[in-house]
């Protein structure tokens, strides 16, 4: 039981959908479990973690989204910024005075500005959690524009004036200091407990449940018989209760995305085209491949239309939306993960890879400058530069699947490295690295 006299107030700001901001949710959960009462401010378009919703130490303050208006882009951006700034300021004035505000960046505008001004008058500390740079994301769509220059000025000015900061890589820590004289503590993303390996029973139950809405998980033919009572595309349950993986099962490839411009899914589609050609040429050596891409975002329908136009015979691609509790189980049930996040700044790391590693899933990740801080080529996964390399890695992994003796030693070695990664979880890492900063 928490001693109420020791509880301190904290505020966490996400100027985005808090349900799709896992790192900030993990911060809130950890703070609430370590003698902090947390006011969590952001948009609630997706449900937050159940532990946060149920915690007596967390109050969620929902910001009102900016209304859809038919305006020129520059006017829309100005009005949206003013709307967000006022909404955030009004909410901050209404909460208990916090010891500190933890503010996610990006977006810097107007979150960091409003949080800094509030902290100045309330005599609270501003702590920025640097996930990436706002200006580098804006640069993807509007290089050398005024808004990019403004964002860079905002990040440099207010970042240097924050009391403390966290960042996600050593490369970003060094860059923040040399670029803007900002000091930050490296807090690597680590998988929480729900991202872990699961039993074959749990895999079978997941495939049965997902098979109700996703055809790729259902078996094409009726494999039930005198001995088999339940069957999916990947597993069979026998009359004596034993569950087995099917020898003739497809390979299961998984990726997740928010369908934004910093992930080019045409790379994966081209790699799957190449896999299709090779599998058709050598069907005795290559299995059917089921590719599941989870998530939602602005470019999803564009890619759905491209996928619908494909006439693949050996590849089936589905884009389901999964419940929070099913996503970790899908990762733990898959054979190989793919990450196409290449980082607009070249300084952040994809959390999806952390989640995959937490579930014991090896990953093929696209190369960028600091990816080697997470993915070690040939040790816990593979790094590729273009679709041909990705196709080669997928083809090699699934050659003579599922029992390629020639690959057994390599796969065993990769699993050894992944098990080592799984030993350090978010909670322990946060207590060692972040809690001392918050307790200052």
From TrEMBL:
Glycosyl transferase family domain residues are 247-398
Q: What is its main location?
A: endoplasmic reticulum
Membrane topology designation: Single-pass membrane protein
The signal peptide stretch is none
- The reaction(s) this protein catalyses: an N,N'-diacetylchitobiosyl-diphospho-di-trans,poly-cis-dolichol + GDP-alpha-D-mannose = a beta-D-Man-(1->4)-beta-D-GlcNAc-(1->4)-alpha-D-GlcNAc-diphospho-di-trans,poly-cis-dolichol + GDP + H(+)
CDD domains linked to this entry: GT33_ALG1-like
One molecular function GO term is: chitobiosyldiphosphodolichol beta-mannosyltransferase activity
**What are the subcellular locations of this protein?**
Endoplasmic reticulum membrane
Protein known as: Beta-1,4-mannosyltransferase
Q: Which organism is it from?
A: Anopheles quadriannulatus (Mosquito)
């Amino acid at each position: 039981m928490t001693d109420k006299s020791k509880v301190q107030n904290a505020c966490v700001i996400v100027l985005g959908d808090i349900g799709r901001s896992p790192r900030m949710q993990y911060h809130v959960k950890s703070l609430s479990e370590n003698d902090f009462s947390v006011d969590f401010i952001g948009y609630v378009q997706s449900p937050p973690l159940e532990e946060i919703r149920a915690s007596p130490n967390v109050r969620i303050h929902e910001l009102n989204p900016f209304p859809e208006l038919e305006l020129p882009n520059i006017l829309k951006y100005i009005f949206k910024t003013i709307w967000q700034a006022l909404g955030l300021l009004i909410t901050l004035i209404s909460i208990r005075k916090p010891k500190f505000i933890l503010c996610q960046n990006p977006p810097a505008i107007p979150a960091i500005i409003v949080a800094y001004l509030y902290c100045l008058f309330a005599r609270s500390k501003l702590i920025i959690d640097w996930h990436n740079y706002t200006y580098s994301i804006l640069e993807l769509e509007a290089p050398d524009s005024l808004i990019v220059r403004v964002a860079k000025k905002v990040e440099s000015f207010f970042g240097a004036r924050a009391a403390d900061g966290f960042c996600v890589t050593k490369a970003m820590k060094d860059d923040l200091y040399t670029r803007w004289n900002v000091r930050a503590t490296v807090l690597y993303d680590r998988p929480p407990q729900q991202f872990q390996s699961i039993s074959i029973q749990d895999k079978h139950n997941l495939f049965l449940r997902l098979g109700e809405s996703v055809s790729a998980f259902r078996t094409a033919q009726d494999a039930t018989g005198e001995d088999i009572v339940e069957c999916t595309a990947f597993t069979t349950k026998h009359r004596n209760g034993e569950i087995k993986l099917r020898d003739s099962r497809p390979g299961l490839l998984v990726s997740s995305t928010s369908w934004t411009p910093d992930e080019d899914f045409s790379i994966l589609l081209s790699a799957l085209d190449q896999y299709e050609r090779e599998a058709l040429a050598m069907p005795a050596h290559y299995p059917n491949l089921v590719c599941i891409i989870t998530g939602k975002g602005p470019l999803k329908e564009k890619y759905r239309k491209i996928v619908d136009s494909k006439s693949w015979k050996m590849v089936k691609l589905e884009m389901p939306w999964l419940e929070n509790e099913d996503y970790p189980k899908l990762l733990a049930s898959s054979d190989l993960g793919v990450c196409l996040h290449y980082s607009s700044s070249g300084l952040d790391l994809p959390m999806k890879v952390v989640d995959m590693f937490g579930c014991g899933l090896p990953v093929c990740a696209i190369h960028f400058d600091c990816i080697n801080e997470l993915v070690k080529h040939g040790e816990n996964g593979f790094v590729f530069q273009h679709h041909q390399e990705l196709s080669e890695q997928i083809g090699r992994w699934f050659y003579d699947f599922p029992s390629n003796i020639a690959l057994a030693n390599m796969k065993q070695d990769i699993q050894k490295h992944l098990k080592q990664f799984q030993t350090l979880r978010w909670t322990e890492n946060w207590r060692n690295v972040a809690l001392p900063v918050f307790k200052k």
